[in-house]
Design brief:
Distance between the termini of chain B: 72 Å
Mean pLDDT of chain A: 90
CATH architecture of the largest domain in chain A: 3-Layer(aba) Sandwich
Number of helices of chain A: 7
CATH architecture of the largest domain in chain B: 3-Layer(aba) Sandwich
Radius of gyration of chain A: 26 Å
Largest sheet of chain A: 9 strands, mixed
Number of domains of chain A: 2
CATH superfamily of the largest domain in chain B: HUPs
Oligomer: heterodimer
Mean pLDDT of chain B: 91
Structural class of chain A: alpha/beta
Largest sheet of chain B: 9 strands, mixed
Order of helices and strands of chain A: HEEEEEHEHEHEHEEEEHEEEH
Number of strands of chain B: 15
Strand order of the largest sheet of chain A: 11-10-9-12-8-1-6-7-13
Order of helices and strands of chain B: EHEHEHEHEEEEEEEHEHEHEEH
Structural class of chain B: alpha/beta
Shape of chain A: globular
Strand content of chain A: 25-35%
Low-confidence stretches of chain A: 22-31
CATH class of the largest domain in chain A: Alpha Beta
Number of strands of chain A: 15
Chain lengths: ~290, ~325
């Protein structure tokens, strides 16, 4: 009998403890609400660039622009983290007025608010300048836990901005992330490096850059597009952020962009007679000294 | 005016040789002092000697965990101290780690950085580089307007040249990792076979392959010419038929074999960006209008399931025909 009472007491105690844990979890959940700054670049659509046939030069004038593919993955990852932990995704972009278009798209995909820095931004700004502006935006937002962006951009593929922002803010960076796990005070990523997958963690706040394999970005729906029109897009100028022109005037300038040389022979062999085509190919490759 | 110096750092000795050799050709009012930072290892002494015969004038053997763990913050800090007030040019290898170290270092020094470079020249108006842009569709000529400057050069873009060894000084230093990162594990990605970058011949497969089992005919062709097997992005990233370390392209491996055989690969720009430096390119494709046609020396138009076995047979019989 004493055992029975004791057991009853124990189970009550268990109930009480689990109730307390639940409360505690709730409190934890409140604390783990994340503020996620996702940087989205409006890049050139690299598949529709125009090449001047006589000079071989590539002109970007009037070329269509779109959201950088890698930043779509960054946005998707930011939204997934918010869906798990709660919080807010803020899409941020830098550039001419037209960057508003990528922010509208980011809001339609699932960002909560958006902010762009226009006004006074040099047209030929380099990675250093963009990183400086993004760092100022981070400081202005004050409570950001995670800054996420693509590993690079499809047009310039410089891969500088993420680590530059981290360095300028004194933050750790997990670059080339293929998976991301955010816990209470830290973030863990599998970094996709040439030599393997590096499982690395660091304290929050942190910068994360993602590779395309991290996820399959969702598409906006008609409903989310309509919903996005009510969301806020804030604009800031350089002077409002207290940025001096010396910090954004480029230190790297582009002189010209030309098509890579193509000196391939472009010989076509008819494969409808496979034996003939094969033996001809083998003798050609022997002549070339590669077989 | 102080002597112009170039600091070179790369994760591997072979990349460091490329950088030192490149750096030794640069001059600004006299040949540059070339300082090579070599990650410590069991071979460090002989590697240092080798660096001198490829143009280094000083070698610093650096003992640190930061390189093997890919902790860029700590290493960039160390390099910025080495750079000091001498306003050097800093050359890195344009690997993922090299680019990250470069970005942090450039930020610390408030310096310009160019990554993915294929050529570099010193001019009166600054450092001029050529780098790959637009997913491999373009070569951009860019000017870095001041020193110090950081340039990350694509591995393999330059063949190192041996010269008469000049005795240089070797020093060593130790860097305790003070990174905010903690690396718990490094999982191997690949099969551990020949690295694609070192392969003389590569047979690469794309979406034209219908199922994983059909890799057998590809492996047979590769075996007949001693080639490594590679693939385009979908085969590794989407289908998972080959491990990641076999993926050739802009964000995969960049290769430069003597012979590259692209089978069932349409030739999207991102793929071309990874194999553009191949000496001879053969494509096997059923579509003569696929972009690979413009990027190959020989295009066999036909069904890969017929052509590949026929080609294997022709190679085995010495190409004397059926």
């Amino acid at each position: 009998m004493r055992d029975a009472i004791y057991n009853l007491g124990l189970s009550r105690l268990k109930e009480l403890v689990s109730f307390m844990l639940l409360q505690n979890c709730h409190a934890l959940h409140e604390r783990t609400m994340r503020e996620i700054m996702v940087c989205v670049k409006q890049s050139y659509d690299v598949d529709s660039l125009k090449v001047d046939r006589s000079s071989g030069l590539i002109s970007t004038l009037g070329s269509p622009k779109k959201m950088n593919d890698f930043d779509r993955n960054a946005l998707e990852e930011g939204i997934r983290i918010r869906e798990k932990a709660g919080g807010k995704v803020i899409a941020v972009s830098v550039g001419p007025e037209s960057v508003k278009e990528v922010l509208k798209e980011a809001l339609a995909i699932g960002a909560d608010t958006a902010l762009y820095v226009s006004g006074g931004v040099p047209a030929d700004i380099d990675s250093r300048g963009v990183a400086h502006i993004l760092s100022k935006v981070y400081s202005l937002l004050a409570d950001v836990d995670l800054v996420i962006m693509g590993e690079g951009s499809v047009d310039h593929y410089s891969s500088q901005v993420g680590p530059r922002v981290a360095e300028s803010l004194g933050l750790p960076a997990l670059t080339y992330a293929r998976s991301v796990e955010v816990s209470d005070t830290k973030v863990t990523a599998e970094r996709d490096m040439e030599g393997g997958l590096y499982v690395t963690e660091c304290p929050l706040p942190a910068v994360v850059t993602v590779v395309q394999e991290i996820n399959q970005p969702r598409l906006p729906t008609l409903r989310s597009i309509l919903g996005a029109s009510k969301k806020e897009i804030r604009q800031l100028s350089l002077s409002e952020l207290g940025i001096e022109s010396a910090n954004v005037n480029p230190l790297v300038t582009t002189e010209e962009i030309h098509s890579p040389k193509n000196e391939r022979k472009k010989l076509v062999l008819d494969g409808s007679k496979p034996e003939e085509a094969s033996s001809r190919l083998v003798s050609e490759l022997k002549k070339e000294g590669v077989l | 005016m102080s002597e112009f110096s170039v600091i070179c750092f790369a994760e591997s000795k072979s990349q460091l040789l490329e950088l030192a050799s490149y750096a030794s050709k640069l001059s600004q009012g006299g040949p540059a002092q070339v300082i090579a930072i070599l990650p410590a290892g069991t071979q460090a002494a002989s590697e240092a000697e080798e660096l001198f015969s490829y143009g280094a004038t000083k070698v610093n053997v650096l003992e640190t965990d930061c390189v093997t763990k890919a902790h860029a913050d700590c290493l960039a800090n160390h390099l910025s101290i080495l750079a000091g007030p001498s306003q050097p040019l800093i050359l890195l290898s344009s690997t993922k780690f090299g680019k990250e170290v470069g970005a942090r270092l450039a930020q610390k020094l408030d310096a310009p950085l160019a990554t993915e470079c294929r050529a570099l020249n010193l001019t009166e108006e600054g450092v001029v580089v050529e780098r790959m842009v637009f997913s491999g569709n373009g070569i951009s000529k860019e000017r870095l307007l001041r020193l110090p400057a950081v340039v990350a050069i694509q591995p393999g873009a330059f063949t190192p040249e041996r010269k008469n060894a000049v005795a240089g000084s070797v020093s060593s230093s130790k860097l305790e990792c003070a990174s905010k990162l903690i690396t718990k594990e490094i999982k191997p990605k690949g099969t551990g076979s020949v690295k694609l970058e070192n392969a003389e011949r590569i047979v690469a497969i794309g979406r034209g392959l219908q199922k994983k089992e059909d890799l057998a005919i590809i492996n047979e062709l590769a075996g007949s010419i001693g080639a490594a097997v590679g693939c385009s992005r979908p085969v590794a990233a989407d289908l998972g038929w080959l491990p990641d370390d076999r993926w050739i392209g802009l964000s995969g491996h960049k290769v430069s074999p003597k012979l590259y055989i692209a089978i069932g690969i349409s030739g999207q720009v991102q793929h071309i960006a990874g194999m553009r430096d191949s000496k001879v390119v053969v494509a096997i494709n059923k579509d003569s209008g696929a972009p690979i046609a413009q990027n190959s020396d020989y295009l066999v138009v036909g069904d890969l399931y017929v052509i590949v076995p026929a080609l294997t047979k022709a190679i085995r019989t010495g190409g004397s025909g059926a």
